[in-house]
Design brief:
The protein has about 675 residues and is an alpha+beta fold. About 45% of the residues lie in helices and about 20% in strands. A hairpin with an 8-residue loop joins β8 and β9.
Length: about 675
């Protein structure tokens, strides 16, 4: 006998079954819908007059003159093929039509580039067209490379022979591949920079598509920095690729695809960089007007009071006034909300790339963004300008009389002034003036001056070298060479002013740079009581190593293969970055090149299915310990080897069974 409770339970069970069935059906419908939605294709625009189609403009002027003479043997031979391939009538039957056809693009496409014509054409026509046919073959190879990198099932490629007049048309694409020189451009670099600037201006604040600029002309490399700085498009979203590099087998289609993926990965940060730079420069322009209004309303009496304060504190007036006014400008920039918002957006972009595997250790970058043509010296200059003032240096002590030099010491050797001898070398000891102003103000007999000692270190390749926990004043250029100055802890010199001036004049010491006041205070504090706040001037310590690259593996001939310069055939030297935590990585597009080379060489002897070149590329661009696994069975090794021991290393170094090792060899004795 069924009770009411049993009936209720049965009803509930039936309802639950219906709901479960409906849920399963809904999940199945969603899954089916997801499967039915095709993967969105990459939209690509290629603007290149040659890739769009070779035409009359690509013929040499000499050959165009030949085509103008219908009685020439070359025209006679060409016309025979025009009749054969295009069904054209004989020359004498329609001379006007023939003359028009000989100067048309149809002649180039239907006859001169026809495989039959290229295979059978005889002298002298063959020699006259040799350059054109060689160029056409390279163009065909380049077009095939792009189509192979972005196959039809994954991408939609639009080919154009000229840039769209309205940049608005470009926003529908994910990737723009732009040729530098189109037709007979008189000023190719300026024209493309102007076009990219218009693109960035019209797009703002919308994102700009990823941009690849390519060319076979030398100007592409010579003026590459202009494409970012003058077009106001972040280098993170712009790649410069010489056509010769794309055509090489070691780059090819895989290199094109990998380059796009790197640009796409950092498209957001490239956009935020554009927004930040736009907000900052706009705020700087507005701040200039506001600061000018404030400064013009400071009459001479107010300026006189400022001068009195500097004088009574024995401060150099130029440094005191510049510091006061520059902060007025900075305040107006800092108070703009757009600048704060842009910095916050950048912060979020970079925070997303941080990882902290060990809570007790500092964070690290998960994937480094590439800036393909940003020179390391610009990063050094940024640190240098933060550290050193740009104000004119005082006159040499050797040109000043002793009484005057003693009385005006704080002007001739300002607080933070770096005194160096005429000839600098590695570890030359220099002096940093750290006398407290209150001591100088006393100007009593026997007054002493205090100096910290700093050793000179030459900068190699504009790298930011590793100094661990030392206090360093970075990037001072003296007589055309860049130097860092490392504080010698616990050492200081204190001598009477007159004694010091005599000694400085005798040894030719002179002020070669002036530390900013806050940086000079670090040297003072570190010298007197070791209370320096490191973080206020701390930067990522990076050393640049020149390395040669080898792949080790038992299946390679002789057990290894070396990365060589394609032109000289000698082992290629590339730059590798070393951090203060003894990790290594490759900057800019070097990681792309190495990943492609590694994959291509390994594939000749090893099963590379399942090995992702993109993973290898990304791993190479973030700090790795020597011995780290890059992907599957591929490991990274970094070795410090003297040149005379390199051959022995290559003989002795054996990769484990089934392993491939990327061995990076450098010589620390050359650093």
């Amino acid at each position: 006998m069924t009770t009411k409770m049993d009936q209720a339970q049965a009803s509930e069970a039936a309802l639950q079954a219906q709901l479960t069935g409906a849920a399963h059906a809904e999940v199945a419908q969603v899954a089916a819908a997801e499967q039915s939605v095709p993967e969105q294709k990459i939209r690509i625009l290629v603007v290149d007059d040659e890739l769009f189609g070779m035409n009359q403009s690509h013929l040499t002027d000499e050959f165009k003159q030949v085509l103008g003479d219908v009685s020439s043997p070359e025209v006679e031979e060409i016309w025979a093929y025009a009749m054969k391939l295009c069904g054209r009538p004989a020359l004498e039957e329609a001379p006007k039509d023939a003359a028009a056809f000989l100067t048309s693009d149809e002649l180039v496409r239907q006859v001169l580039l026809h495989p039959t014509f290229i295979a059978e054409v005889q002298e002298p026509t063959k020699s006259a067209l040799q350059f054109f046919h060689e160029r056409a073959a390279k163009v065909a190879t380049l077009r095939n490379t792009i189509e192979e990198a972005f196959p039809e099932q994954k991408a939609e490629i639009t080919w154009l022979g000229a840039r769209p007049s309205a940049p608005e048309e470009l926003f529908q694409y994910d990737l723009l591949i732009l040729d530098l020189v189109l037709g007979s451009s008189a000023s190719a670099v300026d024209e493309l920079v102007k076009y990219l600037a218009a693109l960035g201006r019209d797009a703002y604040p919308r994102p700009v598509p990823c941009v690849v600029v390519m060319s076979s002309h030398r100007e592409l490399v010579d003026y590459q920095i202009q494409f970012s700085t003058k077009s106001n498009i972040s280098a993170a979203g712009l790649l410069i690729l010489p056509k010769g590099k794309i055509e090489k087998a070691e780059f090819g289609a895989e290199g094109m695809l990998l380059s796009y993926r790197q640009l796409e990965r950092q498209r957001d940060v490239a956009q935020q960089m554009r927004v930040f730079m736009r907000a900052w420069t706009d705020a700087l322009e507005a701040g200039k007007n506001k600061a000018a209004e404030a400064l013009w309303n400071l009459d001479a009496a107010a300026m006189q009071e400022i001068h009195l304060v500097a004088h009574n504190d024995n401060d150099p007036y130029d440094e005191f006034l510049n510091a006061l006014i520059s902060r007025e400008y900075l305040w107006h920039v800092e108070s703009v909300q757009a600048v704060a918002d842009a910095i916050k957006a950048l912060d979020e972009c970079f925070q997303a790339q941080l990882v902290r595997p060990d809570p007790k250790k500092p964070a690290a970058i998960r994937q480094r963004f590439i800036a393909p043509f940003v020179e390391p010296k610009h990063g050094r200059e940024l640190v240098s300008h933060f550290t050193w003032t740009g104000m004119p240096l005082p006159q040499s002590l050797s040109k000043v009389d002793l009484p005057t030099a003693t009385k005006e010491f704080s002007s001739l050797v300002p607080f933070g002034g770096l005194l160096a001898p005429p000839n600098l070398a590695l570890n030359t000891e220099c002096l940093v003036h750290i006398t407290q102003q209150c001591d100088l103000n006393q100007q009593r007999d026997g007054q002493s001056v205090l100096f910290a000692v700093a050793k000179a270190k030459p900068v190699k390749n504009h790298s930011i070298d590793v100094y661990k926990e030392e206090l360093v004043a970075r990037g001072l250029t003296i007589q055309g060479k860049e130097w860092d100055f490392v504080l010698e802890k616990g050492r200081q010199i204190s001598v009477p002013t007159k004694t010091f001036v005599r000694w400085a004049k005798r040894n030719g010491l002179q002020v070669c740079g002036r530390l900013r006041h806050d940086i000079a205070m670090h040297f003072l504090l570190a010298t007197t009581n070791n209370m320096t706040r490191w973080a206020s001037q701390k930067v990522d310590h990076i050393m640049t190593l020149d390395v040669k690259l080898y792949l080790h593996g038992k299946k390679f001939e002789n057990g290894h293969v070396v990365l060589k310069d394609s032109e000289t055939g000698e082992p290629l030297v590339v730059s590798m970055a070393k951090t203060n935590s003894n990790t290594f990585y490759f900057r800019d597009t070097t990681s792309i090149r190495i990943a492609l080379w590694l994959a291509q060489e390994s594939a000749k002897h090893y099963d590379m299915s399942g090995v992702s070149t993109e993973v290898v590329c990304n791993k190479l661009s973030i700090p790795q310990k020597s011995g780290a696994c890059l992907e599957k069975f591929i490991d990274l090794k970094v070795k410090d080897v003297l040149p005379e021991n390199l051959k022995e290393l290559l003989k002795a170094e054996k990769a484990p069974e089934g392993k491939v090792e990327l061995v990076c060899v450098f010589n620390s004795a050359e650093l």
